[in-house]
Amino acid sequence: xxxxxxxxxxxxxxxxxxxxxxxxxxxxxxxxxxxxxxxxxxxxxxxxxxxxxxxxxxxxxxxxxxxxxxxxxxxxxxxxxxxxxxxxxxxxxxxxxxxxxxxxxxxxxxxxxxxxxxxxxxxxxxxxxxxxxxxxxxxxxxxxxxxxxxxxxxxxxxxxxxxxxxxxxxxxxxxxxxxxxxxxxxxxxxxxxxxxxxxxxxxxxxxxxxxxxxxxxxxxxxxxxxxxxxxxxxxxxxxxxxxxxxxxxxxxxxxxxxxxxxxxxxxxxxxxxxxxxxxxxxxxxxxxxxxxxxxxxxxxxxxxxxxxxxxxxxxxxxxxxxxxxxxxxxxxxxxxxxxxxxxxxxxxxxxxxxxxxxxxxxxxxxxxxxxxxxxxxxxxxxxxxxxxxxxxxxxxxxxxxxxxxxxxxxxxxxxxxxxxxxxxxxxxxxxxxxxxxxxxxxxxxxxxxxxxxxxxxxxxxxxxxxxxxxxxxxxxxxxxxxxxxxxxxxxxxxxxxxxxxxxxxxxxxxxxxxxxxxxx
Amino acid sequence: xxxxxxxxxxxxxxxxxxxxxxxxxxxxxxxxxxxxxxxxxxxxxxxxxxxxxxxxxxxxxxxxxxxxxxxxxxxxxxxxxxxxxxxxxxxxxxxxxxxxxxxxxxxxxxxxxxxxxxxxxxxxxxxxxxxxxxxxxxxxxxxxxxxxxxxxxxxxxxxxxxxxxxxxxxxxxxxxxxxxxxxxxxxxxxxxxxxxxxxxxxxxxxxxxxxxxxxxxxxxxxxxxxxxxxxxxxxxxxxxxxxxxxxxxxxxxxxxxxxxxxxxxxxxxxxxxxxxxxxxxxxxxxxxxxxxxxxxxxxxxxxxxxxxxxxxxxxxxxxxxxxxxxxxxxxxxxxxxxxxxxxxxxxxxxxxxxxxxxxxxxxxxxxxxxxxxxxxxxxxxxxxxxxxxxxxxxxxxxxxxxxxxxxxxxxxxxxxxxxxxxxxxxxxxxxxxxxxxxxxxxxxxxxxxxxxxxxxxxxxxxxxxxxxxxxxxxxxxxxxxxxxxxxxxxxxxxxxxxxxxxxxxx
Lengths: 520, 506
Hints:
Largest interface: A-B, 38 and 40 residues
Number of helices of chain A: 21
Oligomer: heterodimer
Helix content of chain A: over 70%
Number of strands of chain B: 2
Distance between the termini of chain B: 43 Å
Number of strands of chain A: 2
């Protein structure tokens, strides 16, 4: 019976043998997080309403296990699944960031959701798990098809999550806007991949890289490759919200539920930047002269524009959105500089950006009112009096975002700017623009600090700001844990920057090892 | 384990930070107990600073003594390296002393005193770290760490509604300057490391290798470093944060900000400007000397035009910092010796003046000299204190600032008589604005002042404890400046000899 079916679909015994040889173990995080989607949805069905709160813990445990699983992950170095998936140290590094962040976001969510008044939560956690799976898969993709499928996996989940607030028009706008614009960008990306396939005859990273190494990009094929590169770059620039492809970011970030915003700001950005680190410096490495000027220009525009636009924001989530735009600019320096320090520095920056941004968003979640939207910077007035710890954590995260030592943000900037200086030539201009814009950034981060410590809440002194949470409300223990992790990591990864950078270096060594000595 | 095996420099740096951290979390402890504990910690730190100074007291020690180091982030040449030489030892003593003065004087802060002392300790630790760092990136880290407590001291305990803007302006100005230094430091890591060697930002090694760079590169790097220092000192036209910040900051905080933190800029010019880039510094010396002179004259004229006591003192401080920078950029023995001596002297006189102004303010409720006058009969001792401090500030022989200014002007004369001529003009203006300020408050008719607290007595016991040691120091260093220069001289000579060699050797 079985053999006849196998014969019909032309699967031979040797195929089955090959199936047994597939390195399933290399994808533990994806099995767990992806399987977790089903578990959570099932739990949502079978659990009585009074025990639905368990769902978030199921999702958290699954994600925590997925993060931990990378450490027993079968690591056959190089690529697996017919060269579709890269199973290397970088995959492990990014699993810890992306899945770890998703786990913390899950942990921070119940408090927020209950305040917003959302009851049915199974699909929320299922979607976060799906998004996390996609985010990790895109970072380990070694093939443009896997890349695109993973991209769509997390994008689709995020479209729904952005519009998740049932009674909020802003949230619906956010989801719809993100869906429309992001689909458009995905189309560009897909078209670009198709053109590259047309020119090189392959969609595997190593084959395309091989082709570009051995062939000059001239003639018709050259045009195809460059067109494809341009379109892929459009998709990339949109997804990391580089200027001028950033227009969606503030609206989407503002409208989405805050935990989702945090997941997008941190998880999506990390996933996309890491995936494109493989694509640009790996696959397109041989044609670096073609894409570096583009990314160079985007980086300068993004650093200047993102920081300038952030200055005038009054809404905290919009401010953090523009701050995320600005940081995309700094991240792109790491792509352009393209030396060993830049690659490990980029991964280090991602790690640092993750913890400090997550910390800032977690504070926003803790301060946010029941409406869950439209939190202004002025609502932070006098936070030091109401919640000294929240104010202190926010201050540390903001100082880190501004790049003040000895936080992780300072070291991230030092490594990235250092890499730009090390690569020399025009890239030094990137470092200088980065430095100058950092001063602007310090201005708007300090605006929040000023509100928290020096300003009185509007109206009567000591009066509660209208939309802020009641003074008595302390953050729930799970949210407090997220805050604790974020702030300890923000300082700890700064003081122990050498260990974190060593690890990032091992991770980046799949592309090119870092050197601690000066080459001759 | 012998005594010298203790990581004394690190303990001196981190004791204030530990104290700050403990103060931040000690919410359950009695505030008075915390205050006296803070004073004790500050005293211990001062003792430690003197221990660090002790090997240099014989006057025959040059180069770095003490010190600890371990590798931190080798990929960018960052090592934790701290050490002291004859110059930094004195400045660490100054910072520790002013830390004690600030904490002692800050006992009366009404609002959130615990946090106030914590910020003072954080600032003190940062300043000592700056003076003790012998790795360029570590220096930068401490340099930025100073910024945060200073920001909070101005923005949270400032005296008017303008405090937040003053604090933000201070932060942005300083940050804008120092980030250029960061680029310079990172650049140095990558270009001065010899081929095949591990990246290094060790001060002595960078100093050795810098001569291999082209003179154009050296000039750019020097300017990148100077950008940080010129804002911190500050020199005109990068000074506009200073009057507001000084006018806002409470007097105990100013003891550290005006007394010690401003010296980090001057110290930077010396250690990471003149000694690190001797060729570039010599090339740009006329420019910086000119800026210093502009600062001297401008500060003095602005002080003449002001009516607010704290602003007069702020501009006076600006003017005096110009002398220090002038001495550094004379790049000779007299000038540099005088500059470091003057850093210490100015670091004693300026805090004393600000604290005395605060003592006056608590009695009169105003800082405006046109609202005051004829108070000498009311509070003769306070008037005497102002007189001594004022005379010290204008450089009366026998009081400490005279010795420093004399050496600086001598050094400037050797460098170019024109500098000396302008600098002397600055001294004359100083006499003018100080006497005008003194007379405005203490002489003439007493105006009808409702806000003067008629029950206010003359100097109280606590004020005597605070001011008498300061005045004694002013007199002591006035009659025996060799206590400091005797230690400095060999160190300065050695550095100047080394750097001239490096500059000529290329």
